[in-house]
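User: If only I could read backbone structure tokens as easily as an amino acid sequence. Those tokens are not coordinates but codes from a learned vocabulary of shapes. Could you go through the record with me and say what the backbone is doing? Here is the record:
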Amino acid sequence: YPAAALQEVEGLRTDVAIVNRSLLNTAWYARFIRDHYGLSLPFPDSQLDALGAFKDQQGNLVTVSDQILQAWLQQKASGAFSRPIAFSVTVDSSFRNAIKDHLLRAGPFLLWQPSTAETAPDTTMLRSNLANIAPDDFAGPFASAQDRSPVRQAFTNGIVTNVTATALT
């Protein structure tokens, strides 16, 4: 997970809790997030161990990760969750489709808002993010042919799309 690796190795944005939605389906990872970032879990340990995926009334699969995220969003809406909740623009849209009307584009991330009324892009934040880009960061290939990282090989080409979308917004 590149963002977590940068945070751990380079010490970047240690104030941000980086949560991998796929791994959040496991109780051990949910506990790791709680202990590593001090991020409260919406379920006690005994209930966390009992959580499982199920199908809702429409037949959609509701994963453990979905249940935890929905509980966090409910806590955020009620004021009981003090930290911002944001999604990287590189996160697969299927993970955020259900809440897309609550997401505000604010740079390289989408910030969750309790109301759907204020989802116009935060152009001040976008401008700030674009102003801090160094052109040399885009010199050369994003991943060389010898780079054996499947993450960098598969996903780094999307950075140009993300930066361009930010600029156009």
About this structure: The two ends are 27 Å apart (CA to CA).
